[in-house]
Amino acid sequence: MSEPEEPVLAIDIGGTRLGVGLVEPGGRISVHDRVEAVAGHRLDAEGLWRTLESMVDKLIADNGNPEIAGVGVGCGGPMTWPAAEVSPLNIPAWQAFPLRERLRERHPGLPVRVHNDAVCMAVGEHWRGAGRGADNVLGMVVSDSVGGGLVLGGHLIDGASGNAGHIGHVIVDADGPQCACGGHGCLEAIAGGPGLVGWAQEQGWRPDMPHVTEVDLAGDARRGHAVAAAAMQRAGHALGIAIASATHLLDLDVVSVGGGLSQGGPLLFDPVEETFREHARMEYAREVRVVPAALGHTAGLIGAAALVFAADRYWNAD
Fold first, then answer.
1. Model pTM greater than 0.85?
2. What pLDDT score was predicted for residue 2?
């Protein structure tokens, strides 16, 4: 199947931002726009939709109203898939919001493809990032939550409900803290932003400051704050265990780790690597490369575009 020649309109919807861009067939983002702190805007469902519409209209108009090949979207979950009625955890205004249907109404006759934003990050990293050229890739986003997407044999794996690769709820400590999902010891409960920040504050890092995030924690770790550095060690240990388990199960080539916590750099990746090597004892598992994501905050837009450009590899519905 040949790739389209026109650009794809790519949209990235997370708990704290809206991003829109035009992505060229080779994966280059020719232009993009981004609005931060979406969750804090206090918009209702239609107000948020109008904000997105306005961003798209301006992007298209400012760039000469080009013909587009389709629309690719990454959105925070949960969502029904592939219908993409979305209920992002950090966007309470949208509950079962018919995102794909609305976009189809705006772009009749064009492919409109919506997937989880962590899946789109993984797709972007496989298509044009750290996993390029590898057939078996787990892409991970470690930020306020922990998510992921899975490519095996060069093709995106969706699973029964579109959630394959969602590594955040792998158990890494059965006696660990309670997770928002109701379980105990999930990777997300330990390495996800709220859990890790809460642990660090209990140890004396920026106590009584309600709005600090995992990005602040990573920044202070780089600047030498002892508790913040210990938090990176804690997260890296949990990630290493989860990645070793996933690698033994899936026989991977590359694990690409992005998201706000990855800004900790070696302070995170060194304990990830050490713990991974400690637990990955099967010979085939020792061949895996665990690397920082290469595309940064643009991975979601590039991966969303790939749902259209490379549908034979990354889109398995309708």
1. yes
2. 64
